[in-house]
Structures are given as C-alpha cells and as structure tokens.
Design brief:
The complex is a heterotrimer. Chain A is built from three helices and no strands. Chain A is mainly alpha-helical. Chain A has a domain of 56 residues. Chain A is flat. The relative contact order of chain B is 0.13. By secondary structure, chain B is an all-alpha fold. In chain C, strands 1-3-2 form a three-stranded antiparallel β-sheet. By secondary structure, chain C is mainly alpha-helical. Chain C folds into two domains: 43 residues; 100 residues, no CATH class. Chain C has six helices and three strands; from the N terminus they run αααβαββαα. Classes of the chains: A mainly alpha, B mainly alpha, C mainly alpha. Chains in contact: A-B, B-C. The interface between B and C is medium-sized, with 36 and 32 residues.
C-alpha cells in the first residue's frame, strides 16, 4: 500500500514538473518547484517505510526545512534581484 | 484491530496519494498563476496531511510517528507562508490577479510581463 | 527571568531535542539541556520571547480554533478537488478586501495563514484591518466576506478591544 501511495505521489510530481517546464512566468515555476518539494518530503517519508529504514524521517524533516527556505530565497531573489546586500 | 488499522491507513494513504496527483493535475490544467496557487495548496494541506496520518497509523506509537507529526506541523506553518509570499511577489511582479485567460501561450520568461489576455 | 514563557520555551526546545534524537544517554541528554539553554539565552538577548515569538497563552483557545480550521480545510479541499477534476474547470476567480478585526499581530497572522491554508483562497496583501484575498470561486470569497473565520480568530486571540 505504501507502493501505491508512492506511485501516486510520483505521478503528481511528474505533472508538477510539466508545469515547472512550461512556465510561462517565473512564479509558475517557483510554485511548481515548491509543490514538488512538498511532494518530495512526503515521498522520502514513504520511501523510508518502503525500505524499512526509519532514519529517512530525519532526511524528510531536513528537506521540509530546506524547501521552505529555498522557495523564499528564490522569491526574494526574483523580487529584488539580489538576496539582501546593501544598495 | 490490526486489520482495521491497516484498512484505515490504506484508505488514508490512497486518498492522500490521489490528492497529490490531483494537485499536479490542477497545476497543469488550471489557466493562470493565481488559480494554480490553489491547486498547489491541495498538495500542501490535504495531500500531505492524509499521507502523514496514514504513515503514522502504520508506524504506531513510536518515535517515527513523532517525527511524522513534526513534519506535519512544520508543513502546516510553512506552506501558507510560502504561498502568501509567492502570491504577494507575483502581485508586485505585475501579474494581474483578475485575469482569467490562459497564460500558456505567453512564452515570456521575465515574470514581470502580463499574463493572459490583455 | 523564570517566567512561565521562559520555562515553556525551554520545555519545547528540550522536548524537540529529546524526541528528534531518541537516544537516552546521559551525555546527550545533558548536552541537549545545555543547547536548549543556549538557544533560550540567545532568544532572550534577541528579545523575541514574548507574546509574538512564543504565544503560549493562546494554547487553550487555539485548541478550540484549530479543529474547526481543519474541518474547513477538509471541506475546501473537496471543493477544489471537484473543480480540478471537473471537465470544464468551473472556476470564477474573484479578488476582494476581507475585513480583519484582530487586535494583535499574532491574530492577524493566524487569520491570514488560515485564509491561505484553506485551498481556494489566498491572502495577497495583509494590512492592519483588512486582507486582500484571491479566491478560486466567487462562493469562496463570499464565505470569507460573511466573516465566520474572522470572528473565530478574534475569539481565539481573546477580545481585548
């Protein structure tokens, strides 16, 4: 049953990738990458169950943190053209 | 009892997976950026919550469940923040939230051009 | 120094450490306590341990609010799912200013977060007394305009106006 759920999540990720490739604006791409990241977090946790390795939960947690910061950094960069230096 | 838990967790996992796939489908099908943000919310809230619940049922009362719940709480607080930041940035970037047309033909990549029918 | 907020922040930090490590050795437990105290000290120096950084006094009323929010999220998930799977995509995007009656910034952020969390509505801009909302359907915006969520968040933060 973990396998079925993983396959469905992978299907969702594939569809999300289509949107990330097609764009058309940079915000569509950032949105797609953000959703892709959320799905990856869940997929890593599912893989942990599939492989019988509970350590994967830590990877999943760290990826959730990275995904959030990455999205905000990308947005900030495209909004201001830099990540916060003076001038 | 164990059978009951298995059935419940199977239902939750399948429903969550379907929501994830539907979210991807929505991202592809919906016509413009602001509509797509809502489809993304489908994966961030419903899909993630159902899958995490399903996995927690499988794990039982262990540290794995605690970590799953932490992932859930974390997603619960960051997903709307990221969504709002994205929507706000797109609004400031000059994308019209009231446009209802299809933005797909517009191959401009700069992000500050108009989207959809003028 | 040892206000309830300080102690609860320490409990949260130390609990997170213990649950994430899952190893019950004296050395790790002592270093966990030391690390939690260090973070606590830094947080106090940064002056973020207040009603905004660690809103522990809202816990009980939040426990009433969040189940209702989860229910709303489930309902709007179903609505957006129906639209996405519908062959003709029956969307009717709407934009509007929703009044927000919260007194504190914690309440306002909770309200804006709740709006964005329910699929179908996204907060575009947040001002002191109103929120610019984009909704996937006209009905979603009308529901927000009716103000039940606004009222419940006000209830959660405790009326101090």
């Amino acid at each position: 049953m973990m396998l079925l759920a993983s396959l469905l999540v992978v299907l969702g990720m594939a569809l999300t990738l289509i949107r990330a490739v097609r764009g058309p604006t940079v915000y569509d791409r950032i949105l797609a990458v953000n959703v892709y990241g959320t799905m990856t977090v869940i997929l890593i946790a599912l893989l942990g169950f599939l492989a019988g390795r509970p350590d994967f939960m830590d990877l999943s947690l760290v990826y959730a943190l990275l995904n959030f910061v990455g999205t905000l950094a990308a947005l900030k960069f495209f909004k201001h053209g830099h990540l916060g230096e003076d001038r | 009892m164990s059978l009951f838990i298995d059935i419940a967790s199977w239902l939750l996992l399948t429903a969550g997976g379907c929501l994830m796939a539907a979210s991807g489908l929505g991202l592809v099908r919906l016509p413009n950026l602001f509509a797509r943000i809502h489809a993304g919310g489908l994966a961030d809230t419903g899909g993630a919550a159902l899958l995490i619940l399903g996995m927690a049922l499988q794990a039982g009362w262990t540290l794995v469940t605690v970590k799953l719940i932490m992932i859930g709480i974390f997603l619960f607080f960051t997903a709307p923040t990221a969504g709002h930041a994205l929507a706000h940035a797109a609004l400031l970037g000059g994308i019209d939230p009231e446009a209802s047309g299809d933005g797909d033909e517009d191959e401009d990549d700069t992000g500050d051009s108009h989207v959809g029918s003028p | 120094m040892f206000s309830p907020r300080t102690i609860s922040l320490f409990a949260v930090l130390y609990g997170t450490w213990l649950l994430l490590s899952g190893i019950w050795e004296p050395f790790l437990m002592i270093s966990g306590a030391a690390a939690s105290m260090l973070v606590e000290f830094i947080a106090h120096r940064m002056d973020v341990v207040d009603g905004e950084g660690h809103p522990i006094d809202l816990t009980w009323r939040a426990l009433i609010y969040y189940p209702w929010l989860f229910w709303q999220i489930a309902l709007s998930n179903l609505q957006v799912l129906r639209i996405v799977l519908h062959p003709r995509l029956p969307i009717s995007p709407a934009v509007g200013w929703v009044p927000a009656g919260q007194a504190s910034s914690v309440g306002l952020v909770t309200f804006a977060n709740s709006i964005t969390l329910t699929p179908g509505t996204v907060a575009l801009t947040v001002l002191d007394d109103r929120i610019h909302v984009h909704a996937l359907t006209k009905g979603g915006l009308d529901d927000l305009m009716a103000g039940e969520m606004n009222r419940r968040v006000c209830q959660m933060e405790g009326v101090r106006k």
